[in-house]
Design goal:
This protein is of the alpha/beta class. The chain has 2 domains: 183 residues, Metallo-beta-lactamase, Chain A (4-Layer Sandwich), CATH 3.60.15; 128 residues, Rossmann fold (3-Layer(aba) Sandwich). Helices cover 23% and strands 25% of the residues. It contains 9 helices and 19 strands. Helix 4 links the parallel strand 13 and strand 14. The N and C termini lie far apart (43 Å). The protein binds zinc ion (2 copies). The site of one zinc ion (ZN) has 7 residues, from loops.
Length: 336
């Protein structure tokens, strides 16, 4: 039987369908799982992606993007390959790609957030397990050390940190990836503590989320002239790249924190040089990956980016046929 997805220099390729999934080079036909920069590159002649992610994808790749939007679960057939998209729970619009051809079903996950404790990202549709013969999985946090604590506990710590800073008259600078993580934090914090200001890179994504029907608390872009009084009790959400920059220094006396799955590792916060680290991730942790893979029923698993070697070894130990694809995908939770 022919493989429904193979690795090519341009990206993951479906030979019978003649299209790519999240290609890292411009191609004629691309299926895009989600709008993070390493999965959604510009320059494709035709793009197929989820309708739920249309606003964020256009916010990232331009309004003129040649996009065909599909509802979750809606199927199209191309060169005899039946294709449908299913929620991945990672960020708004994120999708797994289900391919059916010649009696086989393959699913390419893109990035996903699945939990062994039924936690979910409140800003997007929850991960949907899809039965398949072969599952192509990410493995960003595919090490046994990664086990997320309940989100509510982590968010309560963010609130406590913000509240204490506000009481001391200090702004709270929260470093978070501008697409996905920033909106998840906005949806999760207690907006009653004080005003919320955001970096200019964050607000266009907030607008895309709101246009897509996701409720977020009011936010204001932090302008060139920061008003010290307005800043005093504020939460300021900005991408990690502003750390220790002139942009951040305008905040005066502030406390900073970084929200990322990597903050679970001892020493990561110190290496990052921030006051606080909050381990909050949009990717599945080790038990979440295991549960998601088992739920597919797949006998063959191909690991893309992250901890490939550890995950492939673990899968082989479970009696599954396991291998990896070399990809150009990165990690949007890493510090800039
Ligand atoms: Zn992603
Ligand atoms: Zn990724």
């Amino acid at each position: 039987m022919t493989d429904l997805v193979v690795s090519r220099p341009e990206g993951l390729y479906c030979p019978p369908g003649d299209f790519f999934i999240d290609p890292w080079r411009p191609v004629d036909r691309a299926v895009i799982t989600h709008a993070h920069a390493d999965h959604a590159r510009a320059g494709h002649r035709h793009v197929l992606a989820s309708r739920a992610g249309e606003h964020v994808l256009r916010a990232r790749l331009g309004a003129a993007l040649p996009l065909q939007a599909l509802d979750y679960g809606e199927a199209v057939t191309h060169h005899g390959v039946r294709l449908s998209l299913h929620p991945a729970g990672h960020v708004l619009g994120s999708a797994q790609v289900r391919l059916e051809h010649g009696g086989q079903v393959w699913v390419a996950s893109g990035d996903y957030f699945a939990s062994a404790h039924d936690e979910r990202n409140p800003t997007c549709a929850p991960f949907e397990p899809v039965r398949c013969d072969c599952f192509i999985t990410e493995s960003t946090f595919g090490l046994p050390v990664y086990r997320w604590r309940p989100q509510a506990e982590v968010l309560a710590e963010v609130d406590d940190w913000w509240r204490a800073n506000a009481a001391a008259g200090r702004p709270s600078l929260l470093l978070a990836y501008s697409f996905g993580k920033a909106q998840r934090l906005l949806a999760g914090v207690d907006a009653g503590i004080g005003p919320i200001l955001v970096h200019g890179a964050v607000e266009p994504l907030n607008a895309a989320y709101r246009a897509s029907g996701v409720t977020l608390p009011p936010t204001q872009v932090l302008g060139e002239r920061a008003d010290r009084e307005a800043l005093a009790g504020a939460l300021v959400i900005a991408p990690p790249s502003v750390h220790a920059s002139a942009w951040a220094r305008r905040l005066g006396d502030f406390s900073d924190a970084f929200a990322s799955g990597w903050m679970q590792l001892r020493g990561a916060r110190r290496r990052q040089g921030v006051d606080r680290g909050f381990a909050l991730s949009d990717h599945a942790d080790w038990p979440g990956l295991q549960r998601a893979i088992a739920a597919t029923g797949a006998e063959r698993v191909i690991v893309t980016h992250g901890q490939e070697a550890v995950m492939v070894r673990w899968l082989a130990e479970q009696g599954l046929r396991a291998e990896s694809f070399r990809t150009a995908y990165g990690d949007e939770e890493a510090a800039a």
